[in-house]
Automatic annotation (TrEMBL):
This is DNA-binding beta-propeller fold protein YncE. It comes from the Bacteria. Coiled coil: none annotated.
């Protein structure tokens, strides 16, 4: 069956932020320009840029617009709000969260205009966002208030960006149910639940996690903390979680950054929670490590990035809990976020951003554009060499650049 990412002249527009809904809107024209967060390698300001990623375009790899946010801001993840009419970026430094104003230039191309810092209260080190139907958004803060075993989830009003509540659950208070170093977040609104991962302390050395925690998205109460590791002493660092919903099998999926694996947990309708997590894919058997992002297309194909050595694995999830590996795409070291589009000549491609926090051997600083059917790399943009920057994340300019992310 043909993949249904973004048709040649249309963009997939989701009703949830960051590719979280299952609905397509074919009314917006697609462009092969994309937003990227970036960090400067020259001590200059970090920011957001617009870059052309169609290898068939004469200006492939050209940055047409830049918006500087400040030195050391380290913008980290780009997101659209639920209606895809507001753009946000989280950040590891600076104000931790910004709303980005964009417009079209005289040629109809996207242009970055300004950034408005959003008050995150005591919460530091911004990571992932999830927008919900009821006018809220949730944000994970891996640093929390700054303690050695901290971490929090902020609840915001999506209309005015005001912080409504900070969810905290220290491991010191309850070692069986807690939030610590949260990074990934996923929500199933129909079931009224959300899950966050416990990844790693922001300094990458003070502490590491090996759990995921399930919460009630309305009462904010913790329901259960799950081990996502081979043992209590295995500090696997779950980094992303995806609660499958809608037409997809009702499972939770998690990737482990230091474990390099994919884990799965079935939803239990009787308990209204998930059963225990089990490992469904062992990256070490394939010479893979640092499992990071998960994306799903409309035909039950799961795309998972492995930063080491820089691969994207494509799985069939139509028969979960069986996970069938279909193909392996080769990117560069640090393979991380992805967007999907169709080139001007009709080739269905995935663009892979290759960099993880400028960690040595995981920081190629490139974007690989790979034809999905053949696995051929059609073009590579070397941002490190060409611009002296490293890409941190990537997103579409006419709405989310994938079908379902978190």
């Amino acid at each position: 069956m043909k993949l249904k990412f973004i048709p040649l002249s249309f963009v997939i527009l989701l009703a949830f932020s960051n590719c979280q809904n299952d609905n397509h809107n074919p009314d917006l024209p697609h462009d092969s320009s994309f937003y990227i967060d970036y960090r400067s390698l020259k001590g200059l300001q970090d920011g957001v840029a617009v870059i052309e990623l169609d290898p068939e375009a004469p200006n492939f790899g050209h940055i047409s617009s830049k918006l500087e946010l400040g030195v050391g801001v380290l913008p980290h993840h780009l997101y659209y709000n639920q209606g895809a009419n507001k753009l946000y970026t989280t950040a590891l430094g600076g104000s931790y969260l910004y709303q980005i104003k964009t417009e079209k230039d005289k040629n109809g191309q996207p242009k970055l205009v300004s950034a408005t810092p959003i008050n995150t209260g005591e919460n530091t080190v911004g990571e992932n966002l999830f927008f919900t139907n009821d006018g809220r958004y949730f944000m994970t803060f891996m640093g929390g208030a700054g303690g050695p075993k901290d971490g929090s989830v902020g609840v915001f009003n999506a209309n005015n960006n005001q912080l409504i509540k900070t969810i905290k659950a220290p491991i010191q208070a309850n070692p069986n149910q807690f939030i610590m170093y949260p990074h990934g977040i996923s929500v199933n609104e129909e079931k009224g639940i959300m899950m966050v991962t416990s990844t790693i302390h922001p300094d990458l050395t003070t502490g590491m996690g090996n759990t995921c925690t399930l919460l009630d998205m309305n009462t904010y109460e913790l329901k259960e903390t799950y081990l996502v590791a081979d043992s209590q002493t295995d500090l696997s660092s779950p980094v992303e979680v995806l609660l499958l919903r809608g037409k997809f099998p009702q499972y939770a999926l998690a990737t482990t950054m230091l474990g390099g694996d994919i884990w799965i947990a079935p939803y239990n309708a009787a308990t209204k929670k998930y059963d225990a997590f089990s490992k469904i894919f062992d990256g070490s058997t394939q010479g893979l490590g640092w499992a990071l992002e998960m994306y799903i297309d409309d035909n039950s194909k799961l795309y998972v990035s492995f930063a080491d050595p820089g691969k994207v694995l494509v799985f069939d999830i139509s028969n979960l809990p069986q996970l069938k590996l279909l193909k392996t795409l080769t990117a560069d070291k640090g393979a991380h976020h992805m967007v999907f589009f169709t080139t001007k000549k009709g080739k269905e491609v995935v663009a892979v951003q290759n960099n993880l926090l400028d960690i040595p051997n995981l920081n190629s600083g490139t974007i690989s554009v790979i034809e999905i059917q053949t696995g051929k790399t059609l073009g590579t943009v070397d941002l490190r060499t060409k611009y002296g920057i490293l890409p941190e994340s990537i997103e579409g300019t006419n709405g989310p650049g994938s079908y379902m992310h978190h």
